[in-house]
Amino acid sequence: MGKVIDSVDVICEHKSDGSVVPMRFRLLNEDGDLEAYTVKGYREIRNKTAYTTQDGIYVCGMDMVFECRIILGDTYRTVRLYFNKEKLRWKAAV
To answer: Which is it for the CA torsion 70, 76, 77, 83, positive or negative?
Structure first.
């Protein structure tokens, strides 16, 4: 992964069991325009201990990490979304 974006708009589903499902997110492109992406598939990465991810983001028990598949052009890409349940903030690593 390369770039970490600290503020991401995410549309997600909050289920009754407390789980979160990311559905869509928006990022600013190089021209300063918002681009929307639909999550085609995801998996939640669960870890009980605090650690630093391969993207250089420190996560702990208050964070949820999702590997999301999106279509960019004609190819599938993986983007990691990070959700902090305490601050209600999303980050992305693209």
So the answer is: positive
Q: What's the pTM?
A: 0.91
> What's the rounded Cα separation, in Å, for the pair 76 and 93?
15
CB 25 within 8 A of CB 8: yes
Residues of the chain with pLDDT under 50: none
E strands along the chain, which residues? 4-5, 9-14, 20-28, 34-38, 41-45, 51-52, 58-59, 63-72, 75-84, 89-93
Tally DSSP H helices, then E strands, for the chain. 0, 10
The alpha carbon dihedral of 4, 67, 87, 7 has a sign of positive
d(CA 84, CA 22): 13
